[in-house]
Known about the structure:
- The chain has helices spanning about 10-15, 40-55, 60-75, 100-120, 145-150, 205-230; strands spanning about 25-35, 80, 85, 125-130, 130-140, 160-165, 170, 175-180, 185-190.
- Helix content is about 40%, strand content about 20%.
- The radius of gyration is 21 Å and the shape is globular.
- By secondary structure, it is of the alpha+beta class.
Amino acid sequence: MDNRYNTINSTSLANDIVKLTFNNKHRMITYDVKDLYVNIPIDETLKITENKLLKNNDKHKTKQIIAILKTILAQNYFTFQDSIYHPNKGVVMRSPISGTMAEIFLQYIENRHLKQLLDSKNIIFYTRYVDDIFIIYDTTRTTVDSIHNYINSIHNCLQLNPTHKNNTQINFLDLCTIRKTNKLEVDIYRKPTTTDITINYLSNHPIEHKLAAYRYHIQQNAHVTTYKRKTDT
């Protein structure tokens, strides 16, 4: 997978955002893919995977891998009110392979449909983290309704719910992206339910687990402060 349109974390996203040239015709919007895992079309995704595998493997090896994948992905049973169901689409939640298969399908869709929007400058920035999408578009070339109608018509298994920017800022991952006159600034975003509670140092947990939260907050604050300094110069 080429991960061309993905962001790996908020630090990488902040680095990309502060490099953008922004003007008063640009707008921000975020989307989330509705019920991603349960809507992945298994047969179509297997076909996409097979085509990718054939680029670096012979037909015999590819056939074996696809057969194994098909068996694994078919185990998507669930129970409801004492009845057992077997849906014809969707991957199992919490399965180690589900995230990879969802990513293969989404990247295939993105590679087919995004390039023309970016080349035409209708969308000037696009990135995705799992099922969350961040878009910056040019209002002189397109509208939010056009974008919404287009992306929800790409595939009948994909439906995206929008969140418009509020008061010149928008939250994505753990970043708050703030719109200025001709640039974007980033700050740390904390959800209203954030408690900042960490593992008690005297608890019976590995020291690596106890320190992880502190390392994360220190690194996040250091990086965001650096990016804020860059935008102020």
